[in-house]
């Protein structure tokens, strides 16, 4: 009987620790910025879903392309219709890991610089990316953020000649996710 | 002792499961599950057509909220006028117009055509929006009422003329569907009323059923067609159904529409009720519309 209680106790501790290692957000913020001398284009998506495993450092993102909001309606239409082809490729995702997760002490508040590496998939193309990121531990929540550039050519997104001066070939992407344990 | 062994066994088993839970595949599964919940959202169809006009008539598209669309349209003369008129290019009628999106569902427009010196105004309201996901709707439905005011001098100023004789109206329903990324079709039952007609036996009310569509050739170029079938009992003598074919070419904030049509007018009354050209006789006009959008208000 004693043993049974012991087993139960172990089970509970184990499951609770297991869940605490998975952190999730459903309203991660992903924005991008294209800067040219002609015009600046920016859009934001506040519905990125991301999961983070603090034990292994595994991290994944998924976002609906149609969820990016622009200031100009026509830009949003062209973004979905001509550039990202969101009917064909509705989701963009990232799957990888924080390579130096051991640097982060999740029990202690603070800001830690880390490196994230993995596969970034958008517009049906997948490329390996390695980017610097920061992890901010604040009590029970974890805030992950990063900023990096992608080349549109790497993802087979073609910019026609007529708007070549309006859209940058290098797009600056920023990510900010506030994770909660589950 | 035996129970301790069992305990160790279970413990190691649990630890194993525990490690398994940290696998990336599981992480992705979790992500997928979370994404599933967003899948239930309603996804509205966008960009059924490139602009708010197909050729002469309206498409199911509205301009977005806070967006002003400036439209300059030209129709040249008949191709069968021959080389002397440079196949119609020496003659031109035009319409200048401005459309504006008040809300996502409602747009208004005004315009002035040189053809019969006509002012026109309309609004377009979206009643249904094509969507998938949680709310499913197979079609987009619009209602477009228009009013046109002809300012051409009265033919006979010696008799008593009424200002109301200059007015005409139209009511149109547009039922459209985007079948695929590149193919869209729409039906346009239309009613036109003219306060004054030429002959005593001419009908004031005209019924037409329009059909139109587009087929994208590339991402930025589409082929469009538009046909307004006039119901025989309700048409003016000497008029024919309007048939137009053309291409939309989109370049950033502009849409260029180049087309061939047998209609000279560019408001509902003139191209639906008053088309006199016949394709088979070569009464074909070359024309273009240029649309340029400006974002004025806030889109969301």
Give a verbal description of the structure.
The complex is a heterodimer of chains A (182) and B (300). By secondary structure, chain A is α+β, with helices and mostly antiparallel strands. Chain A has helices at residues 2-20, 73-83, and strands at 22-35, 40-53, 58-64, 69-70, 91-98, 110-122, 125-138, 141-151, 170-181. Chain A has an eight-stranded antiparallel barrel. In chain A, a hairpin with a 4-residue loop joins strand 1 (22-35) and strand 2 (40-53). Chain A is elongated. In chain A, 29% of the residues are buried. With 300 residues, chain B is mainly β. Helices cover 14% and strands 44% of the residues of chain B. Chain B is built from three helices and 14 strands. Chain B has a twelve-stranded antiparallel β-barrel. In chain B, strand 8 and strand 9 (183-194) form a beta hairpin. The radius of gyration of chain B is 28 Å and the shape is elongated. Classes of the chains: A alpha+beta (182), B mainly beta (300). The A-B interface holds A 3, 6-7, 10-11, 14, 17-18, 21-22, 24, 26, 47, 49-51, 53, 55-56, 58-62, 64, 66, 69-74, 76-78, 80-82, 85, 87-88, 91, 93, 95, 97, 160, 162-163, 166 and B 3-4, 6-7, 10-11, 14-15, 18, 21-24, 27-28, 30-32, 34-35, 37-38, 43, 46-47, 64-67, 181, 219-220, 251-253, 293, 295, 299-300.
Percent range for β-strand residues of chain A: over 45%
Main sheet of chain B? Answer: 12 strands, antiparallel, barrel
Low-confidence stretches of chain B: 16-22
* Spatial strand order of the main sheet of chain A: 1-2-3-5-6-7-8-9
Tertiary shape of chain A: elongated
What is the terminal separation of chain B in angstroms?
Answer: 70 Å
